[in-house]
Structures are given as structure tokens and as C-alpha cells.
Design goal:
Elements (H helix, E strand, L loop, with lengths): L16 H31 L2 H4 L4 H25 L7 H36 L1
Helix pairs in contact: 1-3
């Protein structure tokens, strides 16, 4: 028994073959960019560890900052592409992204102040 209430969405696509190629090219580009960023993060994690570069070295600090920056870039790219924010007007982008940016800055502030307080407490007991 065949159902007639199911819509076949592939038959309802109202675009030409050129537009379809353009859409597929964009999907491949997004996949490639996100894959490259992920591979870079994984390789950094695999080849640079605390035991190799040292926990207190400048290299380890750079690696940690690089992880955060790559993650933020991936998150921003996902928001711009998959949530279609990249196609919106500039002021709407800022209205949506500014609270998140302020929240991240707040978290960094809390991280720095609390970590310095814990460092001072640890130094006091040593």
C-alpha cells in the first residue's frame, strides 16, 4: 500500500542544475574547512602534549590559546553557515553575537581572577 501523504522533497526542489552545483560546491567547501580545522586540532593534541613541551613553557600556553581560537573559529563558522547568520545584515549579526562575545569575555575574566587567587592560596601554603 503506497501512502499519498508523504512529500518527496527531492522532487519539490525548484532550482536549476547550475544552482544545484553551486549549492553542492558550498557544502563541499564548508565540509573541507571544518575538516581541516578539526584535523589541525587533533594533530596539535596528538603531537604536542604537556609531557613533550612542558607544562610551564610558553609553547604550551600558545597551544592552549590556539585550541581556544580554533574552536571559536569553528563555532563562528558553523553559526554563520548552518544558522544562515552570514546572509543577514551586519546589525543583526552583532545583536545576536555580541551577548555571546560578552559572555565569553566574562568567562575569561572569571578564569583569570580565580586562577590567580588559587595560585596565591597555593603559594601561601607552600
Amino acid at each position: 500500500m503506497e501512502r499519498d501523504d508523504i512529500i518527496e522533497y527531492s522532487l519539490d526542489a525548484h532550482h536549476s542544475e547550475e544552482e544545484g552545483k553551486k549549492i553542492r560546491k558550498e557544502i563541499y567547501k564548508v565540509t573541507l574547512i571544518l575538516s581541516v580545522l578539526t584535523i589541525v586540532e587533533v594533530l596539535m593534541g596528538a603531537f604536542f602534549g604537556k609531557s613533550i613541551v612542558g607544562e610551564d613553557s610558553l609553547t604550551w600556553a600558545i597551544i592552549k590559546v590556539s585550541f581556544v581560537v580554533l574552536t571559536v573559529i569553528k563555532a563562528a563558522y558553523i553559526v554563520m553557515v548552518f544558522m544562515h547568520l552570514g546572509e543577514e545584515r551586519k546589525w543583526l549579526k552583532w545583536i545576536i553575537l555580541a551577548p555571546y562575545a560578552l559572555f565569553v569575555l566574562y568567562l575569561v575574566f572569571i578564569l583569570l581572577t580565580e586562577s590567580s587567587a588559587l595560585f596565591e592560596i597555593r603559594q601561601y601554603f607552600e
